[in-house]
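Q: Can I see a sequence and its folded structure?
A: Here is a first one.
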Amino acid sequence: MAADQSALTRYRYMETVQGIPVLGLKEYVVLPLGAFPKTGLRAGRKRSINAVRWALQNNNGKALLLAQKNASTYPSTDDFYDVGVVAELTEPMEVNEEIQFIPIAKSRAVVTRLDDSGDILTADVRVVQEGPIPSSEKSEAEQLSQKLLTAFEYYCLKANRELSSDDQTNLASETEPGRFADRIAFYCYKPKDSRNLHLTYQQLQRVLDALDPRERLQTVYEMTMELLEELLDHGSIEETLRELLVQLSLLQKTLLQLQKTLQDSHLLVQLSLLQKILFLFQKILQDSFPTLKP
Protein backbone atom coordinates (compact mmCIF):
# COMPACT_ATOMS: atom_id res chain seq x y z
CA MET A 1 0.00 0.00 0.00
CA ALA A 2 1.31 3.40 -1.00
CA ALA A 3 0.40 5.21 2.21
CA ASP A 4 2.87 5.22 5.07
CA GLN A 5 1.06 3.21 7.74
CA SER A 6 3.30 4.52 10.54
CA ALA A 7 1.99 8.01 9.82
CA LEU A 8 -1.61 6.90 10.35
CA THR A 9 -1.38 7.05 14.12
CA ARG A 10 1.46 9.52 14.66
CA TYR A 11 -0.39 12.80 14.05
CA ARG A 12 -4.06 11.91 13.55
CA TYR A 13 -6.88 9.58 14.45
CA MET A 14 -8.86 7.21 12.28
CA GLU A 15 -12.50 6.43 11.59
CA THR A 16 -13.32 3.18 9.82
CA VAL A 17 -16.07 3.31 7.19
CA GLN A 18 -17.35 0.19 5.48
CA GLY A 19 -19.12 -0.12 2.14
CA ILE A 20 -18.71 3.48 0.97
CA PRO A 21 -19.57 3.90 -2.74
CA VAL A 22 -16.58 4.60 -4.97
CA LEU A 23 -16.35 6.98 -7.91
CA GLY A 24 -13.36 6.17 -10.08
CA LEU A 25 -11.55 9.18 -11.54
CA LYS A 26 -9.72 8.84 -14.85
CA GLU A 27 -6.52 10.90 -15.04
CA TYR A 28 -7.72 13.16 -12.26
CA VAL A 29 -7.08 13.53 -8.53
CA VAL A 30 -9.05 15.48 -5.93
CA LEU A 31 -7.42 16.82 -2.75
CA PRO A 32 -9.36 17.39 0.51
CA LEU A 33 -9.74 21.15 0.17
CA GLY A 34 -13.48 21.56 0.57
CA ALA A 35 -15.77 22.77 -2.19
CA PHE A 36 -14.66 21.90 -5.72
CA PRO A 37 -14.53 24.50 -8.52
CA LYS A 38 -17.95 25.45 -9.90
CA THR A 39 -17.47 23.26 -12.97
CA GLY A 40 -17.68 20.19 -10.72
CA LEU A 41 -17.30 16.59 -11.86
CA ARG A 42 -19.30 14.31 -14.12
CA ALA A 43 -20.22 10.63 -13.82
CA GLY A 44 -20.74 9.00 -17.22
CA ARG A 45 -20.05 5.31 -16.76
CA LYS A 46 -23.01 3.19 -15.66
CA ARG A 47 -21.32 2.01 -12.47
CA SER A 48 -20.31 5.57 -11.55
CA ILE A 49 -23.83 6.86 -12.18
CA ASN A 50 -25.20 4.06 -9.96
CA ALA A 51 -22.66 5.01 -7.26
CA VAL A 52 -23.72 8.68 -7.32
CA ARG A 53 -27.39 7.75 -7.07
CA TRP A 54 -26.74 5.25 -4.26
CA ALA A 55 -24.67 7.80 -2.31
CA LEU A 56 -27.38 10.44 -2.64
CA GLN A 57 -30.20 8.08 -1.66
CA ASN A 58 -28.54 5.93 1.01
CA ASN A 59 -25.35 7.55 2.31
CA ASN A 60 -26.11 11.25 2.85
CA GLY A 61 -24.39 12.01 -0.42
CA LYS A 62 -21.02 10.69 0.77
CA ALA A 63 -18.72 8.80 -1.60
CA LEU A 64 -15.04 8.00 -2.08
CA LEU A 65 -13.32 9.79 -4.95
CA LEU A 66 -10.55 7.40 -5.98
CA ALA A 67 -8.16 7.90 -8.88
CA GLN A 68 -7.38 5.14 -11.35
CA LYS A 69 -3.84 4.18 -12.21
CA ASN A 70 -4.83 4.03 -15.89
CA ALA A 71 -7.56 5.21 -18.24
CA SER A 72 -9.42 1.89 -18.43
CA THR A 73 -13.16 2.19 -19.03
CA TYR A 74 -13.79 -0.99 -17.04
CA PRO A 75 -11.19 -0.90 -14.25
CA SER A 76 -10.63 -3.78 -11.86
CA THR A 77 -9.91 -3.36 -8.16
CA ASP A 78 -6.17 -3.50 -8.95
CA ASP A 79 -6.46 -0.43 -11.19
CA PHE A 80 -7.04 2.01 -8.34
CA TYR A 81 -4.70 3.86 -6.01
CA ASP A 82 -4.77 3.17 -2.26
CA VAL A 83 -5.59 6.68 -1.02
CA GLY A 84 -8.62 8.71 -2.03
CA VAL A 85 -10.87 11.43 -0.66
CA VAL A 86 -14.19 11.16 1.14
CA ALA A 87 -16.51 13.78 -0.34
CA GLU A 88 -20.08 14.94 -0.07
CA LEU A 89 -21.77 15.07 -3.48
CA THR A 90 -23.91 18.18 -3.86
CA GLU A 91 -26.00 19.89 -6.55
CA PRO A 92 -26.57 16.75 -8.66
CA MET A 93 -27.99 17.31 -12.13
CA GLU A 94 -28.62 14.72 -14.84
CA VAL A 95 -27.59 15.94 -18.29
CA ASN A 96 -27.29 13.83 -21.46
CA GLU A 97 -27.14 10.48 -19.65
CA GLU A 98 -24.54 11.83 -17.22
CA ILE A 99 -24.76 13.15 -13.69
CA GLN A 100 -22.97 16.40 -12.90
CA PHE A 101 -22.27 17.24 -9.27
CA ILE A 102 -20.17 19.44 -7.01
CA PRO A 103 -18.05 17.42 -4.55
CA ILE A 104 -17.09 18.87 -1.18
CA ALA A 105 -13.83 17.02 -0.55
CA LYS A 106 -13.36 16.55 3.19
CA SER A 107 -10.77 13.97 4.26
CA ARG A 108 -8.10 11.62 3.02
CA ALA A 109 -9.07 7.97 3.23
CA VAL A 110 -6.85 4.89 3.04
CA VAL A 111 -8.49 1.96 1.25
CA THR A 112 -8.32 -1.36 3.09
CA ARG A 113 -10.68 -3.28 0.80
CA LEU A 114 -12.39 -2.83 -2.57
CA ASP A 115 -15.46 -4.82 -3.62
CA ASP A 116 -16.64 -4.85 -7.25
CA SER A 117 -19.08 -7.76 -6.95
CA GLY A 118 -22.22 -5.58 -7.02
CA ASP A 119 -23.77 -2.93 -9.24
CA ILE A 120 -21.44 -0.34 -7.73
CA LEU A 121 -17.85 -0.39 -6.57
CA THR A 122 -17.59 -0.05 -2.78
CA ALA A 123 -14.69 0.27 -0.36
CA ASP A 124 -13.79 -0.12 3.27
CA VAL A 125 -11.62 2.81 4.29
CA ARG A 126 -9.82 4.38 7.21
CA VAL A 127 -10.60 8.09 7.22
CA VAL A 128 -7.68 10.33 8.14
CA GLN A 129 -8.25 13.53 10.08
CA GLU A 130 -5.12 15.57 10.51
CA GLY A 131 -4.19 16.56 14.02
CA PRO A 132 -1.83 19.32 15.13
CA ILE A 133 1.88 18.99 14.50
CA PRO A 134 3.83 18.42 17.76
CA SER A 135 5.36 21.61 19.12
CA SER A 136 8.84 20.10 18.79
CA GLU A 137 8.35 19.90 15.01
CA LYS A 138 6.54 23.19 14.36
CA SER A 139 9.74 25.13 13.64
CA GLU A 140 10.79 22.68 10.90
CA ALA A 141 7.28 22.77 9.41
CA GLU A 142 7.29 26.57 9.36
CA GLN A 143 10.67 26.65 7.61
CA LEU A 144 9.44 24.14 5.01
CA SER A 145 6.28 26.21 4.51
CA GLN A 146 8.33 29.36 3.93
CA LYS A 147 10.61 27.61 1.43
CA LEU A 148 7.58 26.24 -0.40
CA LEU A 149 5.86 29.64 -0.51
CA THR A 150 8.99 31.31 -1.89
CA ALA A 151 9.35 28.66 -4.60
CA PHE A 152 5.64 28.84 -5.45
CA GLU A 153 5.63 32.64 -5.76
CA TYR A 154 8.64 32.45 -8.06
CA TYR A 155 6.89 29.72 -10.09
CA CYS A 156 3.81 31.96 -10.46
CA LEU A 157 6.03 34.83 -11.57
CA LYS A 158 7.86 32.79 -14.23
CA ALA A 159 4.69 31.02 -15.41
CA ASN A 160 2.70 34.28 -15.59
CA ARG A 161 0.23 32.68 -13.23
CA GLU A 162 -2.01 34.94 -11.14
CA LEU A 163 -4.18 33.50 -8.40
CA SER A 164 -7.73 34.72 -7.96
CA SER A 165 -8.45 36.93 -4.96
CA ASP A 166 -10.27 34.01 -3.31
CA ASP A 167 -7.30 31.69 -3.85
CA GLN A 168 -4.91 34.31 -2.47
CA THR A 169 -7.11 34.70 0.61
CA ASN A 170 -7.38 30.95 1.14
CA LEU A 171 -3.61 30.50 0.86
CA ALA A 172 -2.77 33.43 3.13
CA SER A 173 -5.23 32.30 5.82
CA GLU A 174 -4.21 28.62 5.82
CA THR A 175 -2.71 27.72 9.20
CA GLU A 176 -2.31 23.95 8.81
CA PRO A 177 0.98 23.00 7.09
CA GLY A 178 -0.51 19.92 5.44
CA ARG A 179 -3.42 21.80 3.90
CA PHE A 180 -1.04 24.61 2.91
CA ALA A 181 0.95 22.06 0.87
CA ASP A 182 -2.28 20.66 -0.60
CA ARG A 183 -3.38 24.12 -1.73
CA ILE A 184 -0.13 24.90 -3.50
CA ALA A 185 -0.10 21.48 -5.17
CA PHE A 186 -3.66 22.09 -6.39
CA TYR A 187 -2.73 25.54 -7.73
CA CYS A 188 0.18 23.95 -9.64
CA TYR A 189 -2.04 21.22 -11.12
CA LYS A 190 -3.48 21.26 -14.62
CA PRO A 191 -4.92 18.13 -16.28
CA LYS A 192 -3.38 17.00 -19.56
CA ASP A 193 -0.74 19.70 -19.79
CA SER A 194 1.52 18.81 -22.71
CA ARG A 195 4.12 21.46 -21.85
CA ASN A 196 5.08 19.91 -18.47
CA LEU A 197 4.65 23.26 -16.74
CA HIS A 198 2.10 21.97 -14.23
CA LEU A 199 1.82 18.98 -11.93
CA THR A 200 0.36 15.78 -13.38
CA TYR A 201 -2.37 13.72 -11.77
CA GLN A 202 0.25 11.10 -10.86
CA GLN A 203 2.21 13.75 -8.96
CA LEU A 204 -0.96 14.97 -7.27
CA GLN A 205 -1.62 11.39 -6.18
CA ARG A 206 1.82 11.35 -4.53
CA VAL A 207 0.75 14.45 -2.60
CA LEU A 208 -2.47 12.69 -1.59
CA ASP A 209 -0.47 9.64 -0.47
CA ALA A 210 1.70 11.78 1.84
CA LEU A 211 -0.14 11.49 5.15
CA ASP A 212 2.62 13.19 7.14
CA PRO A 213 2.32 17.01 6.75
CA ARG A 214 6.09 17.54 6.80
CA GLU A 215 6.61 14.89 4.14
CA ARG A 216 3.86 16.51 2.11
CA LEU A 217 5.48 19.95 2.36
CA GLN A 218 8.82 18.54 1.22
CA THR A 219 7.19 16.59 -1.62
CA VAL A 220 5.33 19.63 -2.97
CA TYR A 221 8.44 21.80 -2.58
CA GLU A 222 10.52 19.38 -4.66
CA MET A 223 7.79 19.18 -7.30
CA THR A 224 7.54 22.98 -7.48
CA MET A 225 11.30 23.25 -7.93
CA GLU A 226 11.10 20.71 -10.77
CA LEU A 227 8.47 22.87 -12.47
CA LEU A 228 10.79 25.85 -12.10
CA GLU A 229 13.57 23.89 -13.77
CA GLU A 230 11.25 23.36 -16.75
CA LEU A 231 10.31 27.03 -16.83
CA LEU A 232 13.95 28.05 -16.75
CA ASP A 233 14.81 25.72 -19.65
CA HIS A 234 16.53 23.28 -17.35
CA GLY A 235 18.85 26.00 -16.08
CA SER A 236 20.05 26.22 -12.53
CA ILE A 237 17.46 27.72 -10.20
CA GLU A 238 20.14 28.39 -7.64
CA GLU A 239 22.14 30.37 -10.19
CA THR A 240 19.06 32.44 -11.02
CA LEU A 241 18.32 33.14 -7.37
CA ARG A 242 21.96 33.94 -6.70
CA GLU A 243 21.90 36.50 -9.52
CA LEU A 244 18.72 37.94 -8.03
CA LEU A 245 20.50 38.39 -4.70
CA VAL A 246 23.35 40.17 -6.48
CA GLN A 247 20.90 42.55 -8.17
CA LEU A 248 19.16 43.21 -4.84
CA SER A 249 22.49 44.08 -3.21
CA LEU A 250 23.37 46.46 -6.03
CA LEU A 251 19.95 48.09 -5.84
CA GLN A 252 20.31 48.60 -2.10
CA LYS A 253 23.67 50.31 -2.61
CA THR A 254 22.16 52.58 -5.27
CA LEU A 255 19.28 53.52 -2.98
CA LEU A 256 21.73 54.28 -0.19
CA GLN A 257 23.66 56.66 -2.44
CA LEU A 258 20.43 58.27 -3.60
CA GLN A 259 19.30 58.75 -0.02
CA LYS A 260 22.37 60.85 0.72
CA THR A 261 21.47 63.35 -2.01
CA LEU A 262 17.74 63.70 -1.40
CA GLN A 263 16.35 66.66 0.52
CA ASP A 264 12.62 66.00 0.29
CA SER A 265 11.51 64.42 3.58
CA HIS A 266 8.54 62.65 2.00
CA LEU A 267 10.75 60.98 -0.62
CA LEU A 268 13.22 60.02 2.09
CA VAL A 269 10.47 58.21 3.99
CA GLN A 270 9.36 56.37 0.85
CA LEU A 271 12.93 55.46 0.03
CA SER A 272 13.49 54.12 3.53
CA LEU A 273 10.37 51.96 3.24
CA LEU A 274 11.56 50.57 -0.09
CA GLN A 275 14.93 49.69 1.45
CA LYS A 276 13.18 47.79 4.25
CA ILE A 277 11.10 45.83 1.71
CA LEU A 278 14.20 44.92 -0.30
CA PHE A 279 16.03 43.86 2.84
CA LEU A 280 13.09 41.67 3.89
CA PHE A 281 12.88 40.04 0.46
CA GLN A 282 16.62 39.36 0.51
CA LYS A 283 16.38 37.84 3.98
CA ILE A 284 13.50 35.56 2.94
CA LEU A 285 15.54 34.28 -0.01
CA GLN A 286 18.63 33.65 2.10
CA ASP A 287 16.62 31.97 4.88
CA SER A 288 14.77 29.79 2.39
CA PHE A 289 17.95 28.85 0.52
CA PRO A 290 20.82 28.86 3.06
CA THR A 291 23.37 27.69 0.48
CA LEU A 292 22.93 30.83 -1.63
CA LYS A 293 25.49 33.58 -1.40
CA PRO A 294 25.42 36.69 -3.59
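Q: Show me another, different protein.
A: A second, unrelated one:
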Amino acid sequence: MFRISSYALCALIFCTLAILGCSGDSADHIERAAVSGTVTFNGKPLPEGSIQFLPDVDSSGKPMRGKVVQAIISEGAYSLSVEQGPTVGNNKIMINASKKTGKFQNFDGKKTEIMKQYIPEKYNANTTLKYVVKADQNTADFTLEAK
Protein backbone atom coordinates (compact mmCIF):
# COMPACT_ATOMS: atom_id res chain seq x y z
CA MET A 1 0.00 0.00 0.00
CA PHE A 2 1.17 3.52 -0.79
CA ARG A 3 2.07 5.70 2.25
CA ILE A 4 2.34 9.46 2.16
CA SER A 5 3.97 11.59 4.83
CA SER A 6 1.94 14.17 6.71
CA TYR A 7 4.10 16.95 5.21
CA ALA A 8 3.45 15.72 1.68
CA LEU A 9 -0.27 15.40 2.45
CA CYS A 10 -0.37 18.98 3.79
CA ALA A 11 1.51 20.23 0.73
CA LEU A 12 -0.88 18.35 -1.59
CA ILE A 13 -3.94 19.81 0.17
CA PHE A 14 -2.44 23.32 0.11
CA CYS A 15 -1.66 23.10 -3.63
CA THR A 16 -5.14 21.75 -4.39
CA LEU A 17 -6.80 24.58 -2.45
CA ALA A 18 -4.54 27.15 -4.11
CA ILE A 19 -5.44 25.86 -7.57
CA LEU A 20 -9.15 25.84 -6.75
CA GLY A 21 -8.92 29.34 -5.30
CA CYS A 22 -7.23 30.64 -8.43
CA SER A 23 -9.65 29.00 -10.83
CA GLY A 24 -12.47 31.51 -10.32
CA ASP A 25 -14.03 33.40 -13.18
CA SER A 26 -11.51 34.66 -15.67
CA ALA A 27 -11.80 37.91 -17.60
CA ASP A 28 -13.32 35.84 -20.42
CA HIS A 29 -16.39 35.17 -18.23
CA ILE A 30 -16.96 38.80 -17.32
CA GLU A 31 -20.01 40.40 -18.90
CA ARG A 32 -19.20 42.67 -21.80
CA ALA A 33 -21.37 44.92 -23.95
CA ALA A 34 -21.37 46.64 -27.32
CA VAL A 35 -20.65 50.36 -27.39
CA SER A 36 -20.41 52.96 -30.12
CA GLY A 37 -20.38 56.71 -30.23
CA THR A 38 -18.76 59.92 -31.36
CA VAL A 39 -15.84 62.02 -30.16
CA THR A 40 -15.54 65.73 -30.88
CA PHE A 41 -12.60 67.99 -30.09
CA ASN A 42 -13.14 71.76 -30.00
CA GLY A 43 -16.53 71.29 -31.66
CA LYS A 44 -15.31 69.16 -34.58
CA PRO A 45 -15.25 65.38 -35.06
CA LEU A 46 -11.89 63.95 -33.98
CA PRO A 47 -10.27 62.98 -37.34
CA GLU A 48 -8.43 59.95 -35.93
CA GLY A 49 -7.36 58.58 -32.60
CA SER A 50 -8.20 55.89 -30.07
CA ILE A 51 -10.56 55.42 -27.15
CA GLN A 52 -9.96 53.03 -24.27
CA PHE A 53 -12.43 51.69 -21.70
CA LEU A 54 -10.75 50.72 -18.41
CA PRO A 55 -12.76 48.84 -15.76
CA ASP A 56 -13.04 51.15 -12.73
CA VAL A 57 -14.53 50.46 -9.29
CA ASP A 58 -17.93 48.97 -8.48
CA SER A 59 -20.60 50.63 -6.30
CA SER A 60 -18.85 49.39 -3.13
CA GLY A 61 -15.51 50.88 -4.21
CA LYS A 62 -13.86 47.57 -5.10
CA PRO A 63 -11.82 47.39 -8.34
CA MET A 64 -13.79 45.75 -11.14
CA ARG A 65 -12.37 42.81 -13.03
CA GLY A 66 -12.12 42.90 -16.78
CA LYS A 67 -9.92 43.79 -19.69
CA VAL A 68 -8.97 47.21 -21.00
CA VAL A 69 -10.44 47.50 -24.49
CA GLN A 70 -9.65 49.96 -27.27
CA ALA A 71 -11.39 51.18 -30.40
CA ILE A 72 -10.06 53.26 -33.27
CA ILE A 73 -11.69 56.64 -33.78
CA SER A 74 -12.14 57.58 -37.43
CA GLU A 75 -13.87 60.79 -38.53
CA GLY A 76 -15.21 61.21 -35.01
CA ALA A 77 -16.83 57.77 -34.70
CA TYR A 78 -15.94 54.47 -33.02
CA SER A 79 -17.62 51.13 -32.39
CA LEU A 80 -16.99 47.95 -30.39
CA SER A 81 -19.02 44.74 -30.70
CA VAL A 82 -20.08 42.69 -27.66
CA GLU A 83 -17.11 40.34 -28.20
CA GLN A 84 -14.67 43.28 -28.26
CA GLY A 85 -16.62 45.50 -25.87
CA PRO A 86 -15.89 46.85 -22.42
CA THR A 87 -16.84 45.36 -19.07
CA VAL A 88 -20.40 46.12 -17.97
CA GLY A 89 -20.31 48.68 -15.15
CA ASN A 90 -18.17 51.70 -14.31
CA ASN A 91 -15.36 52.45 -16.76
CA LYS A 92 -12.73 55.15 -16.99
CA ILE A 93 -12.27 56.52 -20.50
CA MET A 94 -8.99 57.52 -22.15
CA ILE A 95 -8.93 59.28 -25.51
CA ASN A 96 -5.69 59.80 -27.45
CA ALA A 97 -4.81 61.49 -30.73
CA SER A 98 -1.45 62.52 -32.17
CA LYS A 99 -0.33 64.87 -34.90
CA LYS A 100 2.88 65.30 -36.86
CA THR A 101 5.38 67.80 -35.50
CA GLY A 102 7.52 68.34 -38.59
CA LYS A 103 10.54 67.11 -36.63
CA PHE A 104 12.33 63.84 -37.34
CA GLN A 105 14.44 61.29 -35.48
CA ASN A 106 16.38 58.18 -36.41
CA PHE A 107 14.63 55.00 -35.31
CA ASP A 108 16.26 51.66 -36.15
CA GLY A 109 18.24 53.38 -38.89
CA LYS A 110 15.13 54.97 -40.40
CA LYS A 111 14.18 58.62 -40.34
CA THR A 112 10.72 58.86 -38.74
CA GLU A 113 8.57 61.87 -37.98
CA ILE A 114 7.97 62.66 -34.32
CA MET A 115 4.29 62.60 -33.33
CA LYS A 116 2.81 64.69 -30.49
CA GLN A 117 -0.26 63.98 -28.36
CA TYR A 118 -2.59 66.96 -28.69
CA ILE A 119 -5.52 65.84 -26.56
CA PRO A 120 -5.20 67.30 -23.01
CA GLU A 121 -4.11 64.92 -20.22
CA LYS A 122 -7.47 65.28 -18.46
CA TYR A 123 -8.85 63.04 -21.23
CA ASN A 124 -6.07 60.39 -21.19
CA ALA A 125 -3.10 60.14 -18.76
CA ASN A 126 -5.05 61.95 -15.98
CA THR A 127 -8.52 61.18 -17.25
CA THR A 128 -11.63 62.61 -15.67
CA LEU A 129 -13.89 60.85 -18.19
CA LYS A 130 -16.16 58.04 -17.01
CA TYR A 131 -18.95 55.99 -18.53
CA VAL A 132 -21.28 53.37 -17.05
CA VAL A 133 -21.60 50.53 -19.57
CA LYS A 134 -25.06 48.89 -19.54
CA ALA A 135 -25.69 45.22 -20.35
CA ASP A 136 -27.16 46.05 -23.77
CA GLN A 137 -26.17 48.32 -26.66
CA ASN A 138 -24.54 51.57 -25.47
CA THR A 139 -24.04 54.95 -27.12
CA ALA A 140 -21.23 56.93 -25.49
CA ASP A 141 -20.52 60.33 -27.01
CA PHE A 142 -17.67 62.52 -25.73
CA THR A 143 -17.16 66.25 -26.23
CA LEU A 144 -13.57 67.33 -25.58
CA GLU A 145 -12.20 70.87 -25.30
CA ALA A 146 -8.57 72.05 -25.50
CA LYS A 147 -8.91 74.12 -22.30
